[in-house]
Amino acid sequence: MIRISTESGLRHSIAIGEHQLLTDVPESFGGTDSGPEPHDLFDAALGACKALTLMLYAKQKGIPLESLDVRVARDASQERQGLYRLNVELDLYGALDDSQRQQLLRIADKCPIHKLMTSTEVQVDTRLSDNV
To answer: Of 43, 49, 62, 72, which has fewest CB within 10 angstroms of its CB?
Structure first.
């Protein structure tokens, strides 16, 4: 379970198991910019999933991928019209031939978060708790 709690103002702490993160919004929205805003966390989930998927796949298949960098750029200019575009760029390091690089590029789009974001209907049910 994930738990988000107000710390002060618009800054919130996020507890994911034993892990702690912060979220906030920029000063221009009334926050203190002390942590990534929710869109950043959403975008980062995609990049992190691609990175982990590629490293695990390469290890399993004996592909000499030593490390990688993933950059995720957001174009939210049409978000209100229903289009949220994420552009992902991969830097792959290791003694990889063109065939392996193309194979890894195909696998990157098969990461679970990519599939969740692009081919799964997500339903969110929100309710008030009885704790108050």
So the answer is: 62
* Per-residue model confidence as pLDDT tens for the chain (132 residues): 999 999 989 999 999 999 999 999 999 999 999 999 999 999 999 999 999 999 999 999 999 999 999 999 999 999 999 999 999 999 999 999 999 999 999 999 999 999 999 999 999 999 999 886
Same domain, 27 and 44: no
Give the number of C-alpha atoms closer than 13 A to the C-alpha of residue 114, restricted to the C-beta side: 19
Instruction: Give CB contacts under 8 A, 24+ apart, made by 74-82.
Output: 74/39, 74/43, 76/39
Does pTM surpass 0.70? Answer: yes
Q: What is the CATH number of the domain that holds 62?
A: 3.30.300.20
Find the angle CA(75)-CA(118)-CA(88) to the nearest 5 degrees.
Answer: 45
The answer to the question of residue 127 being in a domain is no
Task: Specify whether 80 is located in the same domain as 28.
Answer: no
List Cα–Cα distances, 66 to 62, 96, 109, in angstroms. Answer: 11, 9, 19
